[in-house]
Amino acid sequence: MTSSIAAAARKLGVDTDVSLTEARDVVLETADEEELTSKCPGVDFVLGDDMNAGAGVLHLTTRRVVWVSSQPSGPAFALRYQQIMMHAISRDPTSYAKPCIYLQLDEGSEDMGMGGAGGDGEEEEEEEQVSAEVRLVPAEDAKVDEIFKVLCDCAALNPDSEVEGEGDFFFDEAEVMAGLDPQTRAAVIADRLEEGMDLDDQGEGEAMENGTREDLEQLVGNDPSRFEDDEEEDEGQGQPDGAQ
Fold first, then answer.
1. What are 165-190's pLDDT values in tens digits?
2. Same domain, yes or no, for 189 and 130?
3. CA-CA distance, 62 to 81, in Å (whole number)?
4. Nearest residue to 46 via CA among 77, 88, 72
5. Where is this region: Disordered (predicted)?
6. Are 117 and 228 in the same domain?
């Protein structure tokens, strides 16, 4: 049973090659500045719907969720927080018999969750049916909320790489203009002209590369008098005080 769980875990991207000390404590990844935040014994590790690896010690670090079997030669499983798509407390007895921490995993590639080559048909069929879910089931129901809070705090330290820094990306003006559809880009150009901005400041090569100047010439060519008032107003604003 243990080998089946380990095989299924690997198919779901769960690390089964966890470095442990002789006392079966987790070896922290110092290069990644990993720190141990919480250690809770008496927690079952359930993969999928009912593949229970038995009781073990749950280690919550600043980088990983690590479960180590209480058996001397038992398995150990590790998950990085980026692999966890969703985490929640489950107290619904129709979902699982005991209150637990529910983790939905990122299934990653299409090969995950599929039976590997070389195994017998029965094992492959079992692996194919394993859903990308993990349940951490403490022996003491009261521990659920405590574990969940620590897990949430640690997960917040490890934002997903796809959304990390969202809103902090910087683009130059030419890149922004190039990403607009022609109609919107023309409207933006018109607004800029009304504000008295000179498009030549963008750089001729950059503007031509992204189509900005071409779009402007086409827009003005279709209606040459469209911006005459604005240009005259701009010229008037540019004269020194007292000029006639």
1. 444 333 344 544 554 556 666 766 77
2. no
3. 9
4. 77
5. 195-244
6. no
End-to-end CA distance of the chain: 94
| Closest by Cα among 57, 70, 89, 64 to 14 | 64
Would you state the structure tokens that stand for residue 5, as one six-digit string?
């769980």
pTM of the model: 0.61
Does residue 45 share a domain with residue 80?
Answer: yes
CA separation for the pair 50, 211 (Å, rounded): 59
Considering 155, 183, 218, which residue would you say is the last residue of a domain? 155
| 131, amino acid identity | S
97, 151, 69, 108: CA torsion to nearest 10: 90
Q: 107: domain range?
A: 2-155
Q: Give pLDDT, residue 164.
A: 42
Backbone angles phi, psi at 92, to 5 degrees: -80, 110
Helix residue spans in 33-181 (DSSP H): 121-128, 143-155, 173-178
